[in-house]
Amino acid sequence: DAIIRRWTDLRQWNPADNGLLMVAPGTDNWTSAGAVLLRRIEGDFDVAVRFDPQRLDRPADGLNSSVYFQMELDDAGATQLSLIFEKLDSDVSEVLVQLSTDDGGPGRHYRRLGRIGASSVQGLRLARRGREITCIVLSETLGGEIIVGQGDVGDAPIDSDSTRIMVHTGGAGRESHVVWKSIEAHAERMIE
Length: 192
Fold this sequence. Notes:
By secondary structure, this protein is an all-beta fold. The chain is built from no helices and 13 strands. It has strands at about 5, 20-25, 35, 40-55, 65-75, 80-90, 95-100, 110-115, 125-130, 130-140, 145-150, 160-170, 175-190. It has a seven-stranded antiparallel β-sheet, with no helix packed on it. Strands 2-13-4-9-10-11 form a six-stranded antiparallel β-sheet, with no helix packed on it. The chain starts with a strand and ends with a strand.
């Protein structure tokens, strides 16, 4: 845990899990189990997470169960870029790219950069060159790596503790289990 900090599911790493198992109990409010990368990222970057979504319970009506890879920029709007593998209450699964900002008013403002149906996902990847972010999903059922969305997000750094992996389960009495296999980060500058 020297380079990550976890919340909700703090179980000890078990080699038999073949990765870091995170279990997110379901709630009727938005909660998650997750971890943050304790490194500041500056300039261009390419960060990928690989995982095995062993169990994403079907969520309650109007909710979702999901695996998030999120980076928050250190800019005036605290811009959050989220690449999300989600199971909907209809039992359909998809990958969604979402950009959100805080302009000081009530709540955050959300904008979708892309969406694609995907029954199985093994990895999520965010790569920025200059101001342009490219959001990529790794899915064997889709034939490998697929670009889901792109957009201008600016060139602000990502603070330490602002690169997040999360597991969310929508609805009480449900549970999601995800084994995180790896996080691979390349950047112009990465600072402890």
